[in-house]
Amino acid sequence: MNLENEKNDKKETIVTPWQVKGDINYDKLIEDFGLSKIDDELLNRIKKHTGKLHYFLRRGIFFAHRDMNIILDEYEKGNKFFLYTGRAPSGYTHIGHLIPWLFTKWLQDKFNTELWFQFPDEEKFLMKRNLNLEQVQNMVYENMLDVIALGFDPKKTHFLIDTKHAGIMYPEAIKVAKRITFSTIKATFGFGNEQNIGAIFYTAMQAVPAFLPNVLEGTHRPCLIPHAVDQDPHFRISRDVIPRLGYYKPASIECIFLPGLGGITEQGKMSSSNEKSTIYTIDDKETVKRKINKYAFSGGRETVEKHRKLGGIPEIDVSYQWLTFFEEDDDKLKKIHDDYKDGRLLSGELKQILIDKLNNFLDEHQKKREKAKNRINDYIYKP
Ligand code: TRP
Predict the structure, then answer these.
(1) List of E strands, 144-300
(2) Which residue, by CA, sits nearest to atom 9 of ligand 1?
(3) Ligand 1 interacting residues, C-beta cut-off 6 A
(4) Which of 256, 283, 311 is the last residue of a domain?
(5) Are residues 314 and 181 located together in one domain of the fold?
(6) Which of 118, 121, 142 to mutate to test the pocket of ligand 1 (most atoms within 8 A of CB)?
(7) Residue of the nearest CA to atom 11 in ligand 1?
(8) Which portions of the chain are predicted below pLDDT 70?
């Protein structure tokens, strides 16, 4: 197949930090990216430290990793890792963004660790033609409220905003940048010569928090990065460079995407710029209800009669899929699955279960988000 055809092939799958498209085969991604699958052995090892596993681990929502065993080796020797994750603001937070953050919060609690949270305000500014810096910085503020609302411990959580913390980040970023070639960036992200030079440099900035705490605090600790699998290309590159600066290779634990409302086949992950595929954390009850009823792809049958007889298809039903991300109770989830598959539960009823679940969650979240407005300063790193 020549390149032209390949580009036109609708089935083409693309996973980069800025574009996720097509049917995603996560086993293939493990192979292509060179990740390790999270297997039972690793799960048991994590369980020794955490007790009952988070349902994201039990259900394979976090499915892959790099060097988790080294993180645990060091932890068991008494050398505690720090956590690092981030969010490049381009719009309001949607519920897909919350998945890695919820898991990060669990890790912070279970391992009692520091978290460094990066808000690279330059990233989407550089990548998206229609975003100006002021818009992005407003979204930094809005997105911070969501992170704080999840309950991270302010004493152990440090926000880094690239343009604000440039004074401490830039000296480290240039050390990384000096060891990455333009051809590596081109090959990794598919950039051409028309790409702006800020975007080419950006990976160096995303590498910095993976070792900056050691610089600032004079420690030699490993770093664990929980993130969605699309961010892996940045860290694949950083892992080659950071050891040459004298720090541990950053380890990662990586999750799948929450599918968009329109279905798993329509697009790979939820996009903040498509209101039809997304529920934002600031959506009110009516909006949540309307979007799910109107847009959530259904695995139900055309008529009630057929549905009762043949049953629904939970594997392609977005409402069911979303419940696997938001209904923590395994027994409840299994009952919903079985009732739907056997035709006892109708598509509209399944949607209602999801609507109630999300609205309850968002109701709480929005209250905490309001309170977060007075607390931002407690989280921003002060050198
Ligand atoms: N590039 C990420 C985004 O587009 C933001 C980010 C920065 C990040 N550092 C990170 C994500 C570390 C995960 C882990 O949102």
Answers:
(1) 157-161, 223-228, 251-255
(2) 86
(3) 17, 84-88, 118, 120, 123, 206, 225, 227, 231
(4) 256
(5) no
(6) 118
(7) 86
(8) 1-11, 264-273, 275
Quick one: angle between helices 182-189 and 232-241, nearest 10? 150
Give the list of residues 6+ apart from residue 178 with CB closer than 8 angstroms, or none: none
Q: What is the pLDDT of residues 49-95, one digit of tens each?
A: 999 999 999 999 999 999 999 999 999 999 999 999 999 999 999 99
The Cα 89–Cα 138 span in angstroms is 9
CA distances in angstroms from 193 to 7, 167, 180, 199, listed in the order given: 19, 29, 17, 12
DSSP state at residue 380:
B
pLDDT of residue 125: 97
How many independent structural domains does the chain possess?
2
| pLDDT at position 20 | 84
In the numeric block, the tokens 């055309």 are attached to 302
Percent above pLDDT 70 for the chain? 94
pTM, two decimal places: 0.94
d(CA 119, ligand 1 centre) in Å: 8
Say if residue 250 is in the same domain as residue 275.
Answer: no
Backbone angles phi, psi at 292, to 5 degrees: -70, -45
pLDDT at 90: 92
